[in-house]
Amino acid sequence: MPLEIERKFLVIGDAWRQDVTxxxxxxxxxxxxxxxxxxxxxxxxxVARLNIKAAVVGSARAEYEYNMPADExxxxxxxxxxxxxxxxxxxxxASGAHASAVWEIDEFAGDNxxxxxxxxxxxxxxxxxDRPSWLGRExxxxxxxxxxxxxxxxxxxxxxxxxx
Length: 164
What we know:
Hypothetical Protein Pfu-838710-001
């Protein structure tokens, strides 16, 4: 079973921007409300994918991903989705012991504008990694910050005291 192991954090400040190696705009939409799985389509530039993840909170969960035709993805985004997320993903190389890893920093737009979240994929749940100075509070176990949750309950609608 394909397994995604990832940790998620708030991003503080702009120091990370100087190390960005590339960025890509993404639009993604979810095909079902909350349940046993998160099912989404994502358009990353001109590349389209169908993704299915186990709807569990934490650093490890089953994940399946398949390429799909971009025109079909656009059609699904326009007609079938119950919630959408717009963001730019910035890639920043990790340093130290996990220099081969990459931080993915999502700068949200639209209904989730103002939110910056960093993720790092790891080889194991207990893998160590260096924490850059711009890394804030850990969000791995906070369901509200998962993209599926943000599509259904956007950041802009959160009470002020719940925002980062």
